[in-house]
Amino acid sequence: MRAAIYRRFGPPEVVGIEEVPTPSPGRDEVLIRVCASTVSAADYRARTRIVPSGLAVPVALALGVFRPRRSILGMDVAGVVEAVGADVTTFAPGDEIVAMLGARFGGHAQYVCIPASGAITAKPDNMTFAEAVALVFGGVTAQAFLDRASVGPGARVLVNGASGAVGTAAIQLATVRGAHVTAVCSSANHDLVTTLGADEVIDYAVADFTQEARCDVIMDCVGNAPFRRVEGALNDGGALLLVVADLKAILGASRASRTSGKVVTAQEVVYTAEALSRLVLLAEAGKFRPVIDRRYDFADIVDAHRYVDTGRKKGSVVLDIPSPTSSSQEGPQ
Predict the structure, then answer these.
(1) Strand ranges (DSSP E) for the chain?
(2) What is the pLDDT of residues 270-292, one digit of tens each?
(3) What are the tens digits of pLDDT across the range 98-124?
(4) Considering its fold, how many domains does the chain have in total?
(5) In this structure, what CATH number is given to the domain that contains residue 218?
(6) pTM of this prediction?
(7) In terms of domains, do 74 and 124 share one?
(8) Same domain, residue pair 119 and 188
């Protein structure tokens, strides 16, 4: 099979397409023929090892000190079940699925294996593979963090970094729960976040959102909203959801919660099939839609990484992965 391989940390050019052996599913695994994946902020951090302050050592231990432990990036996939292990009864060849691989990575390849008990579920019937995969990374992350707060009808939710994969998902998922949503982003993305359901928009280049809004929930998808900065903008009993945080913020989250009476959380997300299924149901009902900034052919993966490196992507950057039997660079739709 063809896979995008990186053997050292660095710029986009360290990634290249190579022929590697096709994996075989274990007894409890599903082999997926990948049709689409995304190039995400997580791929950027894994490839460059540029991470929030204080996390360089733990990230190096997880990803590899001198070279990558896992040479294929890609945290999410949409595709078709190619084969299943002997003990798998929940999936069958031909099933169209979406899956979140998480820290296992491996999605930037024509095939990948995932445990049948992992974060894998049926693809939305009303979406192409490219559309479906654009729901996964941002959707499961935003949903997991929103589940840690009291987000219901009338709750005031602010999303800092509202135009990225997690931010665009958070706006929609909070709106579905009946929340009043304030989006913090650049003026260029005003129309985008409004169409997704944002009730108010704050241009971060013009105003400090901590001085402009009072919120029940703040979701920080940027990494510049530590508790000490936003405490005054949170209502009593509110929640700060730190999707991106440095080591100091992570270590201080529990103490901030105890001393303030507010929820401060930076815990890692546990990816599950149940969480993915909830997103699929919303997508099929027309309540959660993908935001795709750009699509790239698999052969142009370096260009995809270059674009993600700019930090300007809106929603997801989708990678179309061709079938091994196809001469086309675009996966099935």
Answers:
(1) 2-6, 15-19, 29-38, 76-84, 96-100, 111-115, 120-122, 156-160, 180-185, 200-203, 215-220, 234-242, 263-265, 292-297, 316-320
(2) 999 999 999 999 999 999 999 99
(3) 999 999 999 999 999 999 999 999 999
(4) 2
(5) 3.40.50.720
(6) 0.93
(7) yes
(8) no
